[in-house]
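Reply to thread "Modeling small-molecule complexes from scratch"

Following up on the discussion above, here's a worked example others can learn from. I took a protein sequence and the SMILES for NAP and predicted the complex. Inputs first:
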Amino acid sequence: MVKAKKFVVAKHFQNEPKPTDLQLVEEELPSLQTGEFLVQAEYLSVDPYMRPYVLKYPLGITMIGAQVGKIIESNNPKYPVGKRIVGYLGWRTHTIVNPQAYTEVDLISQKPMILPDIGSLSPSLCLGVLGMPGNTAYFGLLEICKPKEGETLVVSGAAGAVGSHVGQIGKNVLGLQVIGIAGSDEKCKWLVEELGFDHAINYKTENVAVSLRKAAPAGVDCYFDNVGGDISSAVMYQMKPFGRVAICGSISSYNADASSLPKATILQPTMVFNQLKMEGFIVSRWADRWSEGILKNLQWIREGKVHHRETVTKGFENMFDAFVSMLQGKNTGKAIVQV
Ligand SMILES: NC(=O)c1ccc[n+]([C@@H]2O[C@H](COP(=O)([O-])OP(=O)(O)OC[C@H]3O[C@@H](n4cnc5c(N)ncnc54)[C@H](OP(=O)(O)O)[C@@H]3O)[C@@H](O)[C@H]2O)c1
């Protein structure tokens, strides 16, 4: 009999998540039925979307999230013992999976996938640059911003999983001028000195509008927005005519009480006079091209064009701390938990 540990949602998050919002419980798993297999988690992802997304589910559910795990028992020949999968199994150490049960209607109901062959790279990358965040950067930048060589790209949340990859594709693959916005001098130094960004702005110590005007006096062609709020309004007012804005996320609002959010900045003047295009997206839009993104990102890693960093928290019991640390900006690159 296998015992699983899991985090269940005891209380819906309000403002910054509190440890008592989740409860760590144990569960005895039954025997496998035909078609099922048993996965043991090795790496779990903590991502910003979990904060707003989980609110639409009832209390008592297992906290949502993706993991990379090893198949340790199987009644399904397509998922043999020893293979690794990546899938949205939630915050749990052991999971019985029935692949038929996945509806694929949204990101977190995607069917678990056997890991692609990534050679000697860490399987944990399939939660980051070779997984959902990597594909978010790839498709969001190429398909929504549609950048052209020589253009200027600004990315916010630039030192995180998605942002650091967006900037590197922009700089090292597409030949753009790339400016990142991030929350510490150390992160800004990493972006410029190690990842090749042209410039980085620390939004906690600098006036973003003033620093951006200096870094890109001719204006901005593409903005990849991970954060929303005042930072994004400042960037939007420095767009060039026919600029494109990809709205990927708005982490500056995730912990805020809806009633205390600032009133929307008037963006219409810059949108109209600069004839801007702004489009929100969810990466599952490109579910049918998923492998294309992963293989391209893998190729760019192997060619040395993109680098990746992980902030690893050890121990399944520390999932909550890793999650809140990521929301507070304590991660550089992808935040993950190693069981
Ligand atoms: N649309 C999609 O399909 C999709 C898919 C994946 C991710 N996303 C979105 O993409 C964004 C980045 O996700 P990620 O996984 O790469 O996370 P991440 O950037 O690795 O981690 C979150 C980062 O957000 C920054 N942050 C926190 N509070 C902030 C605030 N008030 N203002 C500005 N920055 C703040 C922190 O960095 P600092 O130190 O710089 O503050 C923190 O490290 C999120 O908005 C997420 O929801 C969207």
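What I'd highlight from this example: Residues 47-49, 133, 136, 157, 159-163, 182-184, 187, 226-227, 248-252, 281-283, 326-327, 329, 331, 335 surround NAP (CB under 6 Å). Residues 8 and 23 are 5 Å apart (CA to CA). Questions welcome below.
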